[in-house]
Design goal:
Blueprint lengths: L2 H28 L1 E10 L4 E9 L6 E8 L6 E11 L2 E2 L2 E2 L4 E8 L7 E9 L6 E8 L12 E5 L13 E2 L1 H6 L6 E4 L2 E2 L2 E2 L11 E5 L5 E3 L1 E4 L4 E4 L1 E4 L7 E5 L4 E6 L2 E5 L1 E4 L6 E6 L2 E4 L19 E2 L6 E4 L2 E3 L5 E2 L5 E4 L2 E5 L4 E2 L7 E4 L2 E5 L2 E5 L7 E4 L2 E4 L2 E5 L5 E4 L2 E4 L2 E4 L7 E4 L2 E4 L7 E3 L7 H7 L4 H4 L8 E2 L3 E4 L12 E5 L4 E5 L2 H7 L8 E2 L2 H4 L73 H7 L10
Parallel strand pairs: 10-11, 10-12, 12-15, 13-16, 14-17, 15-18, 16-19, 17-20, 18-21, 19-22, 20-23, 21-24, 22-25, 23-26, 24-27, 25-28, 26-29, 27-30, 28-31, 29-32, 30-33, 31-34, 33-36, 34-37, 35-38, 36-39, 37-40, 38-41, 39-42, 40-43, 41-44, 42-45, 43-46, 44-47, 46-49
Antiparallel strand pairs: 1-2, 2-7, 3-4, 3-8, 4-7, 5-6, 8-9, 47-48
Length: 628
């Protein structure tokens, strides 16, 4: 063979080998290999985090199906979200990078065993099916077979009988055994520090006898497996900053139907390691005073209603929270926050800052927030879920700093000033069926603003992933559609900003859009089915003042009554949404789900602490009919 031909053959072999090697490398990099599967539950939810390797092109999916043990038919849930994230904010950094598929199943029955089937698919290879069984937490109930023991105020003595009760809570605590039910009679007990633990499934229960108020002035928890109910906890000593404080990173605590008033922190859970608290039906009134401005100013961001303190596996539901900085703050992972009525707070309604995967916030009513409705400052892990919340914020809706993937479905977001700054972070979101509405003000509903074009690269790095790849344009993580947007018309001669403002990284200039259709043309694939709305033709009983943003503590205070934002007959938002598996499995009134928080024709949920009647009526409101 001619030497030139031999050389050509050798070159061809080298090229083919290189291409084959690159193809193999690409396939290995893009195919999915599953690793550790973590699963956990709460009263009503199942959470999953499944580590993977590979899938560099982020096209792996995971179908989720579930069924109650003993049933034949499987039900579908939303698929797991693709997560590839190492969150950070200033000097705060997540414990590791999370390359995984993760997500939740919602609205399940307490105390029930479920089977879950996960099906991973990847066009590049690596499909797998995994099935497991978990049990949701048991329904809250005081056992009927425990000892019934009586307590009255005092300094010692007594046998715990009705005729010879224990005198003092400390005396009773010294005699406590798992499963005991202490009936606390009326009176002032000063402070209480329970130190005797129950056992799993056999808590020590402290409940009112029913003959009058049971007063405390501080509750320190030094034990596990406790049920604490019906205390009136009021601050009478300036140094007592916490109404209820966890001193040992306690596990399995039920805090129910207490009134906690005047403290800087209403409930302070143990840092990082506390677990399995159920904080429900409490009234928590903090130490902020909007009339005088006390507790605002430099202290506006300190002093929470419920401070979960970066700990995990909790339920915070049906509490009434006011005059605090944030309503509920710092969940770790696998926390359900729902049914709460949060109003007149000096910072944010919900502050899941530094939270990890499967933080779920649904069915809350939030209004009169001095800062934001919900804070993202930052997300250290994901996903977070924001479902069927009604939020009316004086100032802004989302405080976005650094975030990864989250889900928002069927919320009503009404804002007095600015909806979302740094709105390019919404491009990490799955969004469906939400209503966004801005009262008269010059700020935008969504604004992705850059003051100096030279800072774009720095902003991309700061937002971390995946926007570092795409700038302020949609990426594989973007799924925004079927939402409604509107902005109150100003008085004649008054200028207000458009609905959307977006920095165009291609043209290197700021752009503005007054309607969702033009915005969707600018960002193809974003809100292609979005609609524009106007308040008077959309909402029933619309009464929100246009100057809500002018509400200033210690100055002009704009009060609004508790809002229930429902849709007017004939509104374009009716039947304008799309159903999602599991989330809409209770059905909807028309041909498709309505937009916003309240489906027309369906019962309105209860917000805040429930009395006995409301508890019976709404105990299973958020449980799917098929699971009751």
């Amino acid at each position: 063979m001619h030497r030139f031909a031999v050389c050509r053959c050798v070159q061809l072999v080298v090229v083919l080998s290189t291409l084959w090697g690159a193809s193999v490398f690409s396939a290995e990099k893009n195919s999915t290999r599953v690793g550790t599967l973590r699963r956990y539950t709460t009263l009503n939810s199942i959470g999953v985090e499944w580590d993977i390797q590979g899938d560099a092109d982020h096209d792996a999916t995971c179908r989720v199906e579930y069924r109650r043990s003993g049933r034949v038919k499987w039900s579908q849930a939303m698929g797991l979200l693709r997560i590839d994230y190492h969150g950070y904010y200033n000097t705060t950094q997540a414990d590791r990078r999370y390359n995984m598929l993760a997500g939740s199943v919602f609205f399940l029955r307490p105390g029930t065993t479920y089977q879950v089937r996960l099906t991973v698919q990847d066009p590049d290879g690596g499909g797998v099916v995994e099935q497991f069984e978990v049990r949701t937490w048991s329904r809250l109930a005081i056992p009927s077979d425990g000892r019934r023991l009586h307590v009255v105020p005092g300094d010692g003595g007594g046998m715990g009988t009705e005729t010879d009760p224990f005198r003092g809570l400390a005396t009773a605590d010294n005699q406590a055994k798992p499963g005991d039910v202490f009936l606390i009679h009326k009176g002032d007990y000063d402070r209480f520090s329970p130190k005797t633990s129950g056992k799993p499934g056999r808590r020590v229960h402290w409940i009112p006898a029913g003959d009058g108020p049971v007063d405390l002035h501080h509750l320190n928890i030094y034990a596990n497996h406790l049920w604490l109910e019906g205390f009136r906890i009021t601050r009478i000593v300036e140094a007592a900053r916490n109404g209820v404080r966890d001193r040992i990173n306690a596990t399995d605590i039920v805090l129910r139907r207490n009134r906690i008033q005047g403290f800087h922190y209403g409930v302070l859970v143990g840092r990082y390691k506390a677990t399995r608290w159920v904080i429900t039906d409490n009234v928590i009134i903090g130490d902020k005073d909007r009339r005088t401005g006390k507790g605002y100013g430099a202290e506006h961001s300190a002093g929470e209603g419920v401070e979960l303190n970066h700990s995990s596996h909790h339920v915070v539901c049906y509490n009434t929270i006011t005059k605090t900085a944030d309503g509920v703050s710092y969940p770790g992972r696998n926390c359900d926050i729902f049914g709460n009525d949060i109003f007149e707070v000096s910072d944010d309604g919900l502050e899941p800052d530094s939270g990890y995967g499967n933080v779920r916030m649904w069915g809350n009513r939030i209004q009169e927030t001095h800062k934001a409705g919900i804070s993202f400052q930052p997300m250290l892990g994901s996903p977070w879920y924001i479902i069927r919340n009604q939020i009316v914020s004086d100032t802004t809706m989302f405080k976005m700093r650094v975030c990864d993937r989250f889900v928002m479905i069927n919320n009503s977001f009404i804002v007095g000033k600015a909806g979302v700054g740094s709105a390019y972070l919404l491009l990490n979101c799955i969004s469906r069926n939400n209503i966004w509405y801005n009262l008269t003000h010059s700020d935008y509903l969504w604004i992705a603003h850059v003051a100096d074009p030279k800072q774009v690269d720095a902003i991309r790095r700061y937002t971390n992933y995946p926007l570092s790849e795409t700038g302020f344009l949609p990426s594989w993580a973007t799924d925004l559609d079927y939402d409604a947007f509107g902005k109150q018309k100003p008085p004649p001669g008054v200028f207000i900003g458009d609905v959307f403002g977006w920095y165009d990284t291609r043209a290197k200039r700021q752009t503005h859009f007054s309607d969702v259709r033009s915005f969707a043309r600018f960002l193809p694939g974003v809100e292609s089915h979005g609609i524009d709305i106007e308040a008077n033709s959309t909402f029933e009983n619309w009464s929100l003042p246009t100057d809500l943003w002018r509400s200033q503590p210690g100055g002009k205070v704009v009060d609004i009554p508790p809002q229930v934002i429902t849709l007017k007959p004939g509104a374009t938002s009716i039947d304008a949404g799309v159903p999602l598996p599991n989330i809409h499995d209770n059905g909807f009134a028309g041909e498709a789900p309505d937009l916003g928080v309240h489906e027309r024709g369906q019962p309105i949920p209860h917000y805040g602490a429930r009395d006995e009647k409301a508890w019976k009526a709404h105990a299973d409101y958020w449980v799917l009919k098929s699971e009751r």
